Amino acid sequence: MFDRLAALPLFAIFAVAGLVVVIASIRATKLADTIADRTRMGEAMAGGIILGGATSLSGIVVSVTGAASGDASFAFSNAVGGIAAQTLFLAIADLIYRRANLEHAAAEPANLFQAVMLLILLSLPIAAIAGPDIAYFGIHPISVALFLAYLAGVRLSTTVSEAPMWTPVETRETRRDEPEDEAELHRSARGPATVFAMLVVIMASAGWVISQTGGQFITRFGLSSSLVGSLITAVVTSLPELVTTLVAVRRGALQLAVGGIIGGNTFDTLFLVFSDAAYREGSIYHAVGMNDLYWLATGMLMTAILLGGLILRQREGPARIGIESALMIGIYATAVAVEVAA
Description:
Elements: H1 7-39, H2 43-68, H3 72-96, H4 102-105, H5 109-130, H6 141-162, H7 190-221, H8 225-251, H9 254-268, H10 270-278, H11 290-312, H12 323-341
Helix pairs in contact: 1-2, 1-7, 1-8, 2-3, 2-7, 2-8, 2-9, 2-10, 3-8, 3-9, 3-11, 3-12, 5-6, 5-9, 5-11, 6-10, 7-8, 8-9, 11-12
């Protein structure tokens, strides 16, 4: 269907699909905050599981569709490129939040644990790539391990959120997770959850359109799958995370902002699981190139720096942003330069 379109309509459809994802994500952020209050789940967990998973659906559709069509590099780079881009968004939010370093103000044990879990999950694909080329029913054993590790991590994250064994030092810049309206605690979450589910379907549908137009960019304009996946579709499908982060920061829901990015990135590792299942020519891990592995390493490095910033809790850094934010911006800019030059 899309292969018959001229270039201009193709770009227009791509832009409209991206805009639909962004608009739906704005509404989803407000609903996630409401759901967090009414279910007493907490902003960090709601951001990491509900909001993070919902805003990632358009990206997972892109990766799975790419893998099913036989383009392993496109599927893989869209997943890991999105993780790097979304981590960058926290640095952008730190620039906007002027009271203090965002990582200082959003102190939350659940976010720390999810960052550690993300590093563990990202290390598993490296083990698969470096290990023997094996697959059972077209699926690498690491994909199964990654999926089970994700489920175990979510369960442990809930435990950390509900019964933390330590708490961060309170300062005047620390933003605590408290309901804006106490009446919210006594209202049903069914209505907001229903609307939220409808928005999820819309974002997933837009993700399919983005995957189809992104595939046309590769074939029609001779672009590499890694370039399109890591810098075009990954960034566009990650725009909900940017929007939801900025909206959450503006609303003062800092734990929701940080948890949404880290939790969304954790959920994004499942892109590789589903993509491996959709890729029918063997293990997807042994069909990717070095550029894709480079973006995986970039995502891990940026996550490690973010984790360090969450632990350090620097009050104020250069240009009134944390040193971790400055480093993440520099690392991502370097990665983009390397990808374009490759």
